Amino acid sequence: MRSSALLALAGLLTLASATPVAPALPHPLPQLQPKPVRARQDDDNSTAPCAQVSQAIYGNDTSPRPASPTVPAGLAYECIKSIPLNATSAKRLLKEMPAYLNWQSTLTVLKDPPSQYAEKVQPAVDILGGLEKLAADIDAGTLTLEYDFGWALYTLIQSAHDGHFTYIPDVVGGIFSYGRTVPLVSVSEDGKKLPSVFAFSDVLGSQFKNITYTPSPVVEIDGQDVAKFLENWSQYGSLQDRDALYNNVFYELAQVSLGTSGSGTGTFTGGGRGRFVYPGSTTTLKFANGTEYTMQNYARVIQSFRGITTGEELAAKWFFYGASTAEAQETVSSQALAAAPPGYPTPIVPGPSNLINGFYINAPGYEEYAVLQVPNFVGDAFAEIGFQNTSQTFISRALADGKTKLIIDVQANGGGTILQGYDLFKQLFPQLDPYGVNRFRANEAVDLIGQSFSKWASQFPRLATGNSSVKQIQGAYFDYHSDTTVDGEPFESWAEKFGPVEVNGDKYTTLARWNLNDPLITWNSGGINITGYGPLANVSQTAPFKAENILLLTDGYCASTCTIFSEFLTKQAGVKTMALGGRSNKDQIQAIGGVKGVNNYQWGYIQSLAASAIRIASGEEKVRLNSSVLRTDYYSDVVFNRAASAPGVNVRDGLLQNDTSGVALQFIYEEADCRLYYTPEMTVDATAVWKAAADAQWGSSGNCVRGGGYGRREALEVTANLEPRRVHVSEAAAIKQFEAFESSLSLETECKLKGDGFMYP
Ligand SMILES: *[C@@H]1O[C@H](CO)[C@@H](O)[C@H](O)[C@H]1NC(C)=O
Ligand SMILES: *[C@@H]1O[C@H](CO)[C@@H](O)[C@H](O)[C@H]1NC(C)=O
Ligand SMILES: *[C@@H]1O[C@H](CO)[C@@H](O)[C@H](O)[C@H]1NC(C)=O
Ligand SMILES: *[C@@H]1O[C@H](CO)[C@@H](O)[C@H](O)[C@H]1NC(C)=O
Ligand SMILES: *[C@@H]1O[C@H](CO)[C@@H](O)[C@H](O)[C@H]1NC(C)=O
Ligand SMILES: *[C@@H]1O[C@H](CO)[C@@H](O)[C@H](O)[C@H]1NC(C)=O
Ligand SMILES: *[C@@H]1O[C@H](CO)[C@@H](O)[C@H](O)[C@H]1NC(C)=O
Ligand SMILES: *[C@@H]1O[C@H](CO)[C@@H](O)[C@H](O)[C@H]1NC(C)=O
Ligand SMILES: *[C@@H]1O[C@H](CO)[C@@H](O)[C@H](O)[C@H]1NC(C)=O
Ligand SMILES: *[C@@H]1O[C@H](CO)[C@@H](O)[C@H](O)[C@H]1NC(C)=O
Ligand SMILES: *[C@@H]1O[C@H](CO)[C@@H](O)[C@H](O)[C@H]1NC(C)=O
Ligand SMILES: CC(=O)N[C@H]1CO[C@H](CO)[C@@H](O)[C@@H]1O
């Protein structure tokens, strides 16, 4: 398992791609002349689009490759669209995918989701039916290009809007990624008027009272109404909630603060999943004052194009159809994150890599507030202990300093280590037992792996001191000794844990909960013990803050482990939520807009589980397993060879405590207790967000869009323009920080093969 983990990681790291460099909007706005792309002439390879890409990068054969080459997006698109479909390979891929898709816990429900989900969140999607249709289209000859096939496959999986569930074909994410150069924001002038869209650089300028013109909102993009355009574009994101998706289009401090594990300057500029979408060769913004600005969109070139003259050659070199071995890749190295994030004050207790930081609000009248900013639950493996220690240290420091109210700011939190979510909850509410019930989809492979793992693991005592070969098996879900029943009791056999139980037309495993007292808990927690359990059982049972003195602040981008944590806080402890941003309307919005599944696996881990189950079996069982689906369905590597990065599935559904519906949390729609619009200041100064949140939650001048006062007003006006306003950072410093960050961003992060709860940006 370990060696395949390393292979998978190595493959992933070669695909590091940076977020676009986003220069300030120039003034006056120049009219850009799109570079004419010569028409493709099939008989002259030197002018074929892929040859032009090669020439654009290398100039001639001897010049070295630039560090992060970019070419015009339109040229890249013509090149990628010049690769004919290898129907044999495509059909093999479609044939091998269902074995992995069967692990997707929501596969059946996605076809016919609960009506509230279908109405307010996302429409139904038939994933397996979609694969069959693709195969039929190939047979019928209607899919003839690699790109058209890859894009259809990508969007089929993406339309599940489950951030754990991804398949990024080589042709979609392995050769080029795309971007626009102008980040946008959606802000309400005063927190009351409906938000409008602005170029971020305009807002930056207006905040520093240092521009000579009055910024004007964007009213159209490429001739389409701005809201329509951006709501449509937002749907390419990873989240399920539409307001959260809309927020993710824009520049946001919390995302930027995360560097490599965030979605950069927003999907509009090719951050997050926006990088996979061709944005057209240019994009034209039309402002309310009549000015138009056309930007040239670009493509980042991920692989070497040296010597490439045609799409066929590109495919032969970089697509692993199964016939050839790819040569060593020239890679764009990703820089370690170092810079302090723009817009944040100096933390009182700093945490590792800006994954967590403790702040106070340094402004008169806000002395009682502490802010624990948690934009991540450790999506990479190296910060677990420091992460836990940051909240431990900050909470006791805040209490000692007389803070009585705590804002937990989880903007941009795509999750991370599941048990860090449990631990942070227990630090805040030691007297409560986190419920966290979950289930797998009960497919045959799950059962066979469980039989093998449980039998083998039972030979050895379950000890923290066991060697890693034993812990790999004992620490997995498939040893029934891991986890407990709903009532916190041990399972008595694999058969009891597997079930299956029939619920709403599908079969699932018996509901299970993490056993936080398990001696192997550190195997799954990345090293931390869980507050209140095992070695940390003997902690104070007094909650440091009352539930009504805690606020959970989100931008909707709360996924995976973040949703586990939120569920505990809101349902079990009764903490209130506040959601920022959203589409330009007066409706209530959800606080939690990212995947609510509670564990993702990479397909590579599933393949290694299948192989391990056969390997550790003996005698007749080995023969039986070796002729089962574990061998027939998980042996081929084609699903990995045709992917640009490690594919993933959501394997565990989360369910409500005391649930009787059997409906996974993923499909439950739930509005935030309060909604706040972003204001211009909030896009450059994190403290402005916290002050507004504190005022709305505990002050007398709340700005909740509804429920807090403004919803009762007759009419809200759309923000017309922005008056220059002053904040406490210098413009030069803010822009410098912003640029330093931009150049250090890359969007693929390291990952833990066995999953945890992290949604990759
Ligand atoms: C162009 O490339 C194709 C495929 O690589 C090749 O078959 C053809 O001979 C080339 N044409 C010229 C004029 O070099
Ligand atoms: C190749 O490109 C390099 C760098 O741009 C340049 O210095 C060199 O003169 C070029 N060689 C030819 C033969 O064009
Ligand atoms: C197409 O893919 C198959 C493997 O599925 C491979 O054997 C064949 O060489 C590929 N064809 C081309 C033209 O690369
Ligand atoms: C119109 O608004 C845009 C965007 O804020 C700005 O760049 C431009 O300078 C404005 N034009 C005029 C004539 O004020
Ligand atoms: C956006 O709109 C275009 C054109 O109407 C459509 O083809 C595309 O599927 C839409 N995208 C999404 C993600 O809905
Ligand atoms: C926890 O953080 C504190 C304060 O930063 C530090 O003094 C202490 O050594 C850390 N402990 C661990 C276990 O990292
Ligand atoms: C780990 O322990 C098991 C059981 O004692 C033993 O069979 C195996 O050889 C050990 N593996 C290593 C690498 O020490
Ligand atoms: C967790 O507890 C075990 C057993 O007491 C201990 O050996 C280990 O150091 C603890 N881990 C951390 C990170 O404190
Ligand atoms: C931990 O246990 C010891 C006795 O073993 C006890 O004296 C102490 O009060 C306990 N601490 C807490 C915080 O419960
Ligand atoms: C499993 O079966 C395959 C053929 O289907 C055979 O090549 C392989 O050696 C077998 N492996 C084991 C461990 O029996
Ligand atoms: C679930 O039921 C138990 C027992 O009635 C109750 O104590 C608990 O608060 C309930 N949990 C939720 C989230 O309603
Ligand atoms: C365009 C503009 O007004 N620039 C000014 C911004 O502020 C700095 C410092 O106050 C001035 O030096 C610039 O001239």
UniProtKB/TrEMBL annotation:
UniProt keyword terms in alphabetical order: Signal
Q: Where is this region: Disordered?
A: 25-49
N-terminal signal peptide: 1-18
Keyword Signal appears in the UniProt entry: yes
Q: Does the keyword Signal apply?
A: yes
**Ranges of residues in domain CPAF-like PDZ:** 178-305
Q: Which domain of life is it from?
A: Eukaryota
Q: What is this protein called?
A: CPAF-like PDZ domain-containing protein
